[in-house]
Amino acid sequence: MKFLILASTLFVATFAFQKSAMLESNRVSENKPVGTSCDECQSLVKRFSDAAKDPKKVQELKMLLNILCHETSYVDECRMFVSKLEIFLDKLQPWLADAKAVCAKVHLCNNPRIDGFRRLLLALAKRYDAKLFTNVENRYVCDECEFAVKEVKTFIEDKETQTEVRDFLRTNVCAPLGSYRGFCDLVVDEYLPQLIQEADAMLQNPHQVCVDVHACDASWAVKPRKWMPVMNLPATETNAAVFWAQSGRVETKQGQILMSCFECMLTVDGLLEEMINKRYSLSHDIRQWACYQLLPSNFTDSCVNVLDLYMPSIVYMAIKQFTAEGICDHIKTCEKHSVESFYALSHEETAAHTCENSRNAEIFVQKNIVGSPVEKLIYEGLSKKFCSSGPYFYRNLCDQLMSGLAPRLTQVSAKLAAEGKFSAAKHCN
What is the DSSP string of 233-290? Predict the structure, then answer.
């Protein structure tokens, strides 16, 4: 009996060691899904190119886009752009002629990491749809998943990668915001590490993660973690509105304004105005990337011509889709009367209240935001935006990330408020 126990233990230990070594080098079963990401990309490019040459399909697309134009706040500009869709598609055709070059340019060819994730997703699909896919090796799926989790964890832990992401956001998102650049830099520097830390913590145990997404079979020792489902959204919105109503009010010549509404409207209005004023700079940055980095050099001139003609209008129309009133209402910091009173303020009166209100808002946030209904509203908003439309195995994992991220964000907000960082970003001494 002792011999059997010893032999069994030795076998299990040997198997575990061998599996660990395989995962380190990604040596998994050779029975893999056929095809590559490059093949699928080329197929999509060719299908798009063929459709763009078909007048009937182009007309159908224009009809659909014209209908969608009525859902925007810039109907005339949108319809004008749609009316010239053939010109835009015609300019794209020479570039689409070499499908492999297109896919190589976006790093979908000869990319082992992308192919590895593709194999994993196909294998997961096989597990979920046995009628469509058959003869799936569960061990292959599990091993490939664990290796992929390790790859992602190593990637996000890399300090050089983190610095590159931070610098990219500060250069391409914050730099064009003019006087709001300091505020944007603050948000990137303080909140981005929280996302990285939460993702790293969630991926700490690769096997548990793969059990959670059903890539690995559960056992008596490791079972799928069940996340708390998103609760009733309207109730949370109501509670968040009540919470912000307790922040206090700003006394102005135009009437009382919720302190939270004044702060939100001032910040969002300023950001949107800066982005509109800098739309040519934003368009130039997009042109530089698309025409000089993405496309081959023989398409540079035509790319520049097209983007110089259309991109400023596209950027303008995209920004105009957002309003301070809409955003602040969505996060429940405003009520109708406060919005009306804010818009009635003169520039001088707004400036006179800015710093005092910002400091008072910091005191309120510092003392009250952690554990408040806003924390749950952030979680629900992030989950709805980034998790709800994905496949089941992705939704659970994404939802767990957001549920852990929301408390981190409110804790950092309270810390920054206590240090006076928000008012300092507005140059309030």
Answer: HHHHHHHHHHHHHTT-EEEETTEEEEHHHHHHHHHHHHHHHHHHHTHHHHHHHHHHHI
State the helix-helix crossing angle for 181-202 and 138-157, rounded to 10 degrees: 140
| Mean pLDDT calculated for residue range 341-365 | 91
For 90-138, the pLDDT digits (tens) are 877 787 788 888 888 777 787 776 766 666 666 665 555 554 444 445 6
Predicted TM-score (pTM) of the model is 0.64
Q: What is the CATH number of domain 31-110?
A: 1.10.225.10
**Residue 121 φ/ψ, nearest 5 degrees:** -65, -40
**What does the pLDDT read at residue 96?**
78
Looking at residue 228, what is its pLDDT? 55
How far is Cα 200 from Cα 209, in angstroms, rounded to an integer? 12
DSSP character at residue 198: H
pLDDT tens digit sequence for 360-400: 999 999 999 998 888 888 888 888 888 877 666 677 788 88
Domain boundaries, given as residue ranges, for the chain: 31-110, 233-425
C-alpha closest to that of 181 among 167, 190, 191, 171: 171
For residues 185 and 169, the answer to whether their CB atoms sit within 8 Å is no
Amino acid at 167: D
